[in-house]
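USER: Study each token:
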Amino acid sequence: MPSPSTTPTNRPPPHPKPRPRPRPTLSSAPPKRLVSADARGFTLIEAALGSLIVGSLFVAALHTVAASRTTAASQAARGEAILLAQSLMEEVLAHPYTDPNQAPTFGRETGESGSNRAAFDDLDDFNGWTSSPPAAPDGTAVASARFRRSCEVKQVNPSNLSGSSSTDTGVRRVRVTVTHADRVLAELTAYRTPANPWGAP
């Protein structure tokens, strides 16, 4: 009786059993840190150089703040100087071209002095006048003593307004100057004739 034939089966081979992983052991030594060459600390020279740079920037910032305050103060002083010059120019031009009470003489007449401009009664009385601190005609101070106002009145030739004339040609130049701490901050110039367009007597 024939033996039964055996046929091979396509079974996969059995998987190997996984090997047990070694358990980590506790160590009393601290863990090692990996430090790259670029992760080093600052040296003393680098720290000193950084402090020097920061200090320089701080000083520069202080200078900038001080300069801005100086500029603001200078602009305020210039604005005040312009107002002082305008008020004095209006006062001067409001006076008559010549003295209405005495014979025409260029300059101050008898009884008039530079210390009391309330007594001025004509245009040329203001020639050479100066005052510090600026004051009203009654002597009341109107600004700081660091300001100074001065006035110059010159007879000029109509054909050369920048020059001066020894005789009365019918035109006078009035120049008002305001200084602050000996620095000119405002200067106004006007020309006056006997026709008196400003409405003075």
Helices lie at 44-93. The mean pLDDT is 79. The chain has one helix and four strands. The longest strand covers residues 183-192.
